[in-house]
Amino acid sequence: MKRTHILVCTGTGCTSAGSFQTRDALLAELEKRGLAGEVEVVETGCMGRCDLGPVSMVHPDGTFYKNVQAAEVPKLVDEHFLKGRAYDKLLPTDPETNHLIKTQADFTFFNRQLRIVRDNCGIIDPEKIDEYIARDGYLALGKVLTGMTPEQVTDEIKASGLRGRGGAGFPTGRKWELMRLAPVNPKYVVCNADEGDPGAFMNRSVLEGDPHSVIEGMAIGAYAMGANRGFIYIRAEYGLAVKRLHIAIEQAYKLGLLGKNLFGTGFDFELEVRIGAGAFVCGEETALMRSVEGRRGQPQPRPPFPAQRGLWGKPTNINNVETWATIRPIILKGAKWFASIGTEKTKGTKVFCLAGKINNTGVAELPFGTTLREMIFEVGGGVPNGKKFKAVQTGGPSGGVIPEQFLDTPVEYETLQKLGSIMGSGGMVVVDEDSCMVDFARFFMEFCCDESCGKCPPCRVGTRQMLNILNRICAGQGELDDIQKLEDLAAMVKDTSLCGLGQTAPNPVLTTLKYFRHEYEAHIMDKRCPARVCRDLLHFEIDEPLCKGCSLCARACPVQTIARVGTQKKFEIHEEKCIHCGACFEVCRFDAVKKTSPGMLVTA
Amino acid sequence: MNLEELKKLKDKAQRQVALREGNKKYRVVFSMGTSGIAAGAREIMTTMLDEIDKRGIDDVEVAVTGEIGLVDAEPMIRIEEASGEKVTYAKVNAADARKIVTEHLEKGKIVEGLAVGKVKE
Question: What percent of chain A has pLDDT over 70?
Fold first, then answer.
């Protein structure tokens, strides 16, 4: 028997920081010290603090370690496992008190969360079905198959108030009922794992950390809706998630938890993985279905809805990864319990991804109704380097920005919509005072323009035209009627595009225009970028008294336009060749390089 | 696979994961400083883990700590109960370790001859 377990996070974030090497070093070091019989090394899914990776947890002590690089392992084993005390160097610090955080329970980022969907993530080994079963895995499926009718299951999901986690928030129970009542056979269930928003990785974290929870949810849904075949549609970029899904499905088949005659009830469920090429539009359900069928991923007009005519013309239900993973806890703990969490209109929890200019980057699960302020400043730890918060982009490229005055808004589908944004998949990209909102809107427009499938002109041509205007504004060539043109185009693209991609693509532009119009005006009228981001509107200068003559800037300059002032020791920038790349600004150690956006009055 | 088989599989697998779930009734702490190790604390711990495993006791976690301070009484073990009661055993040998498991951890009875102190917090 092992007395202690060290859990090494092997989600994509931590593996890219070297957690597989950490695992190998741990195994070797424990063997060397004769501790292999006492200490078990466990690989788990994402623990949530991707920025501190590779991260690790020691049980039963509850110690959380950050940046556990392979080189630190000998010292860690020495301190923690041999001497029995925490290795201070790898403990995280509380940003408020500056004290070391000894256990996960004292960590605000963790103890503010309510984990329902991610309950197993970071605790079990996702490649071992035994560990999932140990935590009541497949018990919900057994309960449903042996003791509930499909109608009872649908009613339970309806009563829980669960809404689709993919973004639109349609009541899951109602969607299931429509499918259940569809008279045509066969029927199909699909898991939409085509997560593609910049700054969103919650689905990946669930699939990598607890793939069985999605499989079990799908089997329950298939039973409730009368389907016997399911597909998980996932993008090829999610290599680790794909691998773990394959392992999980194989293990479930081996134990008879997938396949024929489940739990001896005569119910069959076959499940397979379909890998997509990573097109953003394939997250749209009609495009997704075409891709599953092996055709080009392009959306179709709705109706007919998938529940009427889906895969191969048969009734099909598509739910998001997180929705499927929420089914199991609802069945196990009951609809009433689930409905007691969250708000009046939206029940339960949501997994959010905190990214951008925020201290605690990672994945956090919180009840609906948590305010943006709590999310960003308490769980997220606020904006780094003492910078000022400017806005938060929710819902990725289909969402919009929300400025500071609305930080106390409780987060749920309707409240975000009212502010011009959307919930989307739950991505939260924080923007600070150093970000230019025009440039920000341009980034998302470029993304949508690139990802437009090209089927309908409003999206194909409209997003391109909007991007052209935004490029022009950022380059200091904006014209006075550009704002009006943007607004007209946005309305047209929104109203006339075929699918959700085009219908929501103008949101970042519309919300930045609504809340940060002055930044657009500064770019267009004064040729000035207030956040000092847009390259063409910048001016670099060396402040002579501060210059120490170290020559770092001159050596960093890619166009060799920085030279000594005459025969003096100091340097100056020759404006005519300057490409405004900012390399000199980055390298100067004495703050002697000044970056300004003076506007046309000065540069003219 | 039927429901019974699943539950059996769960019971078997649960012990592997239970350690990560916290809130155990007993916490057994080994004094694992230099003098503890020299007196054989590590072997005693392995013996104890073996006995706990053999008897299938779930409600125990085993931890190590540095020197407790009473060097000539090593190997020393402190058993902390969730209620706050702490019992310390001194000069524990392999046979004692097995006895502590069967008596204290399994039946909740303090092994009187071995215990050197009892504190209630």
Answer: 99
